[in-house]
Amino acid sequence: MKYSRLTKEQFEELHQEFINFLATQSITADEWANLKTNKPELAEMELDVFSDLIWEGVLNQAGYLEHFSAQHIYLFRLGKEKMKAIVVNVKNDAIDVTTQEGYNWLRENLMDENVEFFQADKDYTDDKNLDKFKMIEQGAVITKGELFEYFDGLIN
């Protein structure tokens, strides 16, 4: 398995897609029930393959990632060749941008001396989607990129 198995809730949400996936494998509902009972290791493999297919599709479509920590906001535009990163650093430990109060402070004090902006390009490894997935595992979330584009316009 390349990524991680989907959760029970994700499988439930993708129930019809999973049925279609099994159909492409020529596995009927009865055969699936039989697999789960009599060959659970094969059923597990099918779940893993389906999970990887879903992740691959999601990661191929992802255009932006965001990751918030107490004093940092990491914003990424996921380009074809590399990702562009913008980091917002708050140098005041009393401000926590993961709270509404801290985020509001940042919005009102973007030009404060305690706020720094950094930019960088980051190359992908040989497996661009795995790079994205590892960032998600570390807490990044896929977004539409409004925050990235806002800060990109602000500092460039």
Mean pLDDT: 94
What's the total count of β strands?
5
Write down the Rg: 21 Å
The separation of the N and C termini measures 41 Å
Largest sheet, in brief, is: 5 strands, antiparallel
Instruction: Choose one word for the global shape.
Output: elongated
Strand order of the largest sheet: 4-3-2-1-5
Continuous helix count: 7
Structural class: alpha+beta
| Count of domain modules | 2
Runs with pLDDT <50, length 5+?
none
Strand content: 15-25%
Oligomer: single chain
Query: What level of helicity do the residues show?
Result: 40-55%
Order of helices and strands: HHHHEEEHEHEH
Task: Please tag this protein with its features.
156 residues; alpha+beta; 2 domains; 5-stranded antiparallel β-sheet; 7 helices; 21% strand; elongated
Structure write-up:
The chain is an alpha+beta fold and 156 residues long. The chain has two domains: 8-61; 64-155, no CATH class. Helix content is 49%, strand content 21%. It is built from seven helices and five strands. The chain has a five-stranded antiparallel β-sheet, sandwiched between helices. β2 and β3 form a beta hairpin. α3 (29-38) packs across α4 (40-61) and α4 (40-61) crosses α6. It is elongated and about 65 Å long. The chain starts with 7 loop residues before the first helix and ends with a helix. 16% of the residues are buried. The mean pLDDT is 94. It comes from Mariniflexile litorale. Pfam families: DUF6495 (PF20105). This is DUF6495 family protein.
